Amino acid sequence: MEKEKDMEQQEKVVYGRNAVLELLLKKPDSIEKIYFQFNTSHPKLKEILVSARRQKLVTGKARLERLSLMAGTTKHQGVCALVSAVSYYTIEEVLDKPRNTFPLLLILQGLEDPHNIGAIIRTAEAVAADAVLLIEGKGSPVNATVHKASAGALSHMRVCKVKSLVRCLEFLHERKFLIIAADMDAEINYTDIDLTKALAIVLGAEGSGLAPEAVKFCDHTVRIPMAGCVESLNVSVTAGVLLYEAMRQRLA
User: Fold this and answer.
1) Could you tell me if 137 and 56 are in contact, meaning their C-beta atoms sit under 8 angstroms apart?
2) 225 and 112 part of one domain
3) How far does CA 67 lie from the centroid of its chain?
4) Which residue has the higher pLDDT, 205 or 127?
5) Residue finishing a domain among 32, 64, 83
6) What does the pLDDT average to over 191-203?
7) pLDDT at 190 (0 to 100)
8) Which long-range contacts (CB under 8 A, 24 or more apart) does 9-13 make?
C-alpha cells in the first residue's frame, strides 16, 4: 500500500532540467510548485528559476535527498516540479453553469497552510458553493495534504485559479456581485448583511490577512462577534461561519 502511494506521488512529479523547462514552456498552468537544489549555479537551472519567477510560480529549495525522494530517483538533476492533479476552471465557466440561482464564490488570497485550504474546500462543498478561487503563485499548492483535508470534497468542488485578485474583484463587480471580507475591526456584524444575492467572500492569508488593495474592492468588511479571550478565529473557521450564514439566509 505504501509503495502504491509512493508511485502515485511520483506520477505527479516532473524532474530533470530539460523536462521541467519544457513543462514551463508548454503547460505552466499545471505546475503547483518547483523545487530546486540549494545550489542553482547550473545555467539551465538558472533559466528555469528565472522563467518560473517571471510566470509567478511558487518555487522552493530542497536538499538533494528530498528531491530524490520526490522524484523516486537520484537522476533529478537538481529540480522537481509538482504537477497538479486538479483540473482548474475559469470564472466564466463557473458562472455560465452556476449551482445556485445567485452564485456563491469563495476567494482565498495566499493561504499557506494546506490543511486550511482543504478544510475550506470541504465546507464550501458542504454548502454547495459554486467555486473556490485561488491566486496564481500565492500560497500553498493544491497538494496531497489539501486532498486529504478536504475529505473527498476536492473531487466535487470547482476550483479556479486567477492571475490577479484585484482584476478578479473588478470582474465580479461588473457581474453585480456583492463582495465581502471578514475583519475583526469592522463595524458591521456578519449577520446584518444580505447574503442572498450573488456573493463573493474574500479571505486573506493566515497572519497577514487581506491585502489593503483588495479591501478597497470589497463592498463590506464584516466582523464575527467574539466573547472569549482569543482575538481571532482560524481562517477555515471564519470561512465556515460566513458560508453557513449565507446558506441559512438563502434557505430562509
Assistant:
1) yes
2) yes
3) 24
4) 127
5) 83
6) 97
7) 96
8) 9/70, 9/144, 10/70, 10/71, 10/72, 12/82, 12/83, 12/84, 12/85, 13/70, 13/71, 13/72, 13/80, 13/81, 13/82, 13/83
Task: List the 31-36 sheet strands across, edge first.
Answer: 13-15, 79-83, 31-36, 59-61
Give the count of beta carbons closer than 10 Å to the beta carbon of residue 176: 9
Q: Which of 55, 83, 111 is the last residue of a domain?
A: 83
Is residue 36 within 8 A of residue 46, CB to CB? The reply is no
Inter-CA distances, 56 with 79, 107, 204, 207, 209, Å: 17, 18, 19, 22, 20
If asked whether residues 126 and 202 sit together in one domain, one would say yes
Rounded to an integer, what distance in angstroms lies between the CA atom of residue 125 and that of residue 24? Answer: 32
- Bridge partners, residue 182, by sequence: 222
Could you tell me the pTM of the whole model? 0.74
Element (H, E) at 43: helix 43-54
Are 190 and 181 spatial neighbours (Cβ–Cβ below 8 Å)? Answer: no
For the cut 70, the answer to whether the pLDDT of residue 9 exceeds it is: no
Residue with cell 471578514: 182
AA letter at 124? A
pLDDT digits (tens, 9 = 90+) for 162-191: 989 999 999 999 999 999 999 888 899 999
- Each residue's pLDDT tens digit, 14-46: 899 999 998 898 878 778 889 999 887 899 999
| CA distance linking residue 42 with residue 52, whole number of Å | 15
Cell of 170: 473588478
